[in-house]
Amino acid sequence: MQFCPECKSLMRPIKKNNKTVMGCSCGYTKKDVSKPIVETLEKPKEVEVVSDEETLPITQAECEKCGHKEAYYWLQQTRAGDEPETKFLKCTKCKHTWREYS
Ligand SMILES: [Zn+2]
Ligand SMILES: [Zn+2]
Question: Cβ–Cβ contacts within 10 Å for residue 59, how many?
Fold first, then answer.
């Protein structure tokens, strides 16, 4: 048994466009009941691009440009294997980026 989602009364099969559909006295008709209802998958919403900066750790470093004392940092391998990773710093204030030489 199926009940009308509109008025909650019992629906009965009715003929519509040469097809038997479930209908209700209020006028509600369920679309073609002979086929299984294929739910159209909602397109996944585009993931908001989170700027890399927000995920970077912050360290205490003085920016040579604006004198700010906090900077994001990350490590980057510049050459294949034989060299240690280079530490890059980016001022949290003016976005000035520089590398730290060890
Ligand atoms: Zn109804
Ligand atoms: Zn700065």
Answer: 14
